[in-house]
């Protein structure tokens, strides 16, 4: 779903809160994957047979891959949310996140918004 659709559906503040929560959920997943990697290394060091070591090695690789994916998603979500939030200030009156969506182009990554306080219009770019 595009930025404009989500902001129109939830409002900017709820969208921003959701992005932060989703990003931090990915960070928790990354931490759990690190714990899984350490536990699998520990199990591999105590393994008796070659089959057990191979299984533990596959668990290490799977946890490491999932952890790297989660870390990338965390960094993407947080930097994107912050970049968009920094553009949510009205350039004229400085009001934060009190705007209505005026226009959005489905093929583009921007939304045109209008301040509820002073009626100034500006554009928010989604470069993420």
Structure explained in plain terms:
The protein has helices spanning 3-10, 12-46, 50-85; strands at residues 99-104, 110-115, 121-125. Strand 2 (110-115) and strand 3 form a beta hairpin. It is an alpha+beta fold. The protein has 3 helices and 3 strands. The chain starts with a helix and ends with a strand. A 3-stranded antiparallel β-sheet has the order 1-2-3, covered by helices on one side. The chain is rod-shaped. 62% of the residues lie in helices and 13% in strands. It has one domain (3-125). Helix 1 (3-10) crosses helix 2 (12-46).
* Major sheet: 3 strands, antiparallel
Q: How many DSSP E strands?
A: 3
| Helix content class | 55-70%
Q: Beta-sheet strand percentage?
A: 5-15%
Query: What is the molecular shape?
Result: rod-shaped
Element order: H for helix, E for strand:
HHHEEE
For the record, the count of structural domains works out to 1
Strand order of the largest sheet: 1-2-3
What is the terminal separation in angstroms? 14 Å
Summarize the structure.
The protein is an alpha+beta fold and 128 residues long. The chain has 3 helices and 3 strands.
Which secondary structure elements does this structure contain, and how are they paired or packed?
Blueprint: H1 3-10, H2 12-46, H3 50-85, E1 99-104, E2 110-115, E3 121-125
Antiparallel strand pairs: 1-2, 2-3
């Amino acid at each position: 779903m595009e930025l404009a659709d989500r902001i129109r559906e939830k409002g900017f503040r709820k969208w921003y809160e959701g992005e932060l929560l989703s990003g931090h959920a990915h960070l928790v997943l990354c931490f759990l994957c690190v714990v899984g990697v350490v536990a699998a290394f520990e199990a591999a060091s105590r393994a008796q047979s070659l089959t057990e070591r191979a299984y533990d090695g596959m668990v290490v690789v799977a946890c490491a891959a999932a952890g790297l994916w989660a870390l990338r998603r965390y960094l993407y979500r947080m930097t994107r949310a912050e970049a968009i939030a920094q553009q949510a200030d009205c350039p004229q009156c400085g009001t934060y996140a009190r705007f209505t969506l005026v226009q959005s182009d489905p093929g583009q990554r921007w939304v045109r918004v209008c301040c509820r306080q002073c009626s100034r219009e500006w554009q928010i770019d989604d470069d993420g």
